[in-house]
Structures are given as C-alpha cells and as structure tokens.
Amino acid sequence: MPDTPVTFKVFRCAPGGEASRFDTFEVAVPGHASVLDALDAIRVDIEPTLVYRHSCHHSSCGTCAMRINGRDRLACITPAHEAAAESSVQGTVTLEPLRGLPLQGDLMVDMRAFYRHFDEHWSTLRPSEGRAQAALPAGIERFTRLENCIECGCCVSACPVTGTETGDGTAFAGPAVLAAVRREMGRGPDVPEGLAALAFGPHGEQHCQRHLACSRACPNGVYPARAIMDLRRMRERKE
Description:
By secondary structure, the chain is of the alpha+beta class. The chain contains 7 helices and 7 strands. A 5-stranded mixed beta sheet has the order 2-1-5-3-4. The protein has a two-stranded antiparallel ribbon with strand order 6-7. Helix 4 packs across helix 7.
C-alpha cells in the first residue's frame, strides 16, 4: 500500500492536565506503519513539542500504551490504517492518554502511581500466565516462559474502578497489582502477611466489579480478572 493520508486527533495538555485540547494532524503513512510510527512522524516533521512515551517498538516494554479510538492499546502494534478504518469517524484516529493515572502532558501519564503498591522484594522472574506458543528448537525439551505482564497500564486504564475512590474512601489497587500479588502467592504455600493485606485489605479484590475490561485490554493475555477472582475465592474459603 502506498503512503496515504491519515488524520490524527491527538489529546494535548500541559503538565497536570491543564489547558487540555485536541490538535489535528494529517500524516501520509505507509501501509505497514503503526500508530507509533505516525506519532514519530508528527513529532519529527510537524509538532516537536508532542509528548508521549515509547521505547522498544515491538510490544515488549509497554511504554507506548494509550487510548486509541477509545480502546486501551499499544501504539507500536496498532496499524495506523486499521485504526483509521475502524474509527467512528472513518479516516480519523483519536489518541488519548491512559485513564486513572496522573497526566504529565499530552499522551504521557505518571507511572509512579501505577507502581505504588508494587513491592521491590517481589520476585522478578515468574512462570507466565500463558503457554509458550513457539515451536521448540532442536535439542530443547520445553520452554519455561517468564512473566507475560509488561506493566503497560492498559488494564488499569480500562478498569472502571481504578483511579476512583471506592465506597470506603480508599483507592482500588488495580488489576495489574492484584494479578502480580496472585502470582507471588503461587510461589509457595505460606503467604506473606503483606501480600494477604494487599489482596484482601481496603485496596484489594473486594472492589473488583467483574467488568472484565482489564482482561480484554491486556495485550499479552495475562487475564488479570481471572487472578482477581482467584483471590476472591481464596478469601471466601477462609471466611
């Protein structure tokens, strides 16, 4: 496919979310281009002040997560022309920052809020939630795939509870944290007190409303809603 124009309606704001607006840019992009490729073109050729995060460009780091046409996705693996075709305003791709996290400017959010419940002592290498799909090389008997979650924040943004105060005035820890807690609990029969306090305490699984939006948004098939329901069943067995 030759380079064809795509219109991007991009959320813009100063740090903290002040003076928010949408700016419109038209970019000629190749058929294989991703939304992230188009953003790079906008920043280099049209608007150098545009703020967004990106790193690996192949869905391993999670830094380019944003809302694309109202869906929480990774910009690096979302084809620009497909996003334009599926838009409610055909030919126009609307880009917004993740929800539920403090705005730092334009499409960039403050991820420190995402990590506030994570503990530095949690293990960094864990068996993944899914199964390795690639064919085994010669001489290799099996794969042990580690940690599918790339901590992109899509599940937090998609969750209708995260980022809002719950009924008792506390904040829901969110699907990413609780999925990580469930993985930590699976490491052995003895659950550390801190994990139990987070899983079943005032920030924990009790606030999940079972929308399943987090699992639908996850680009890596982690299914955090399933982990949260595991925690809920664990709590119910103890009661």
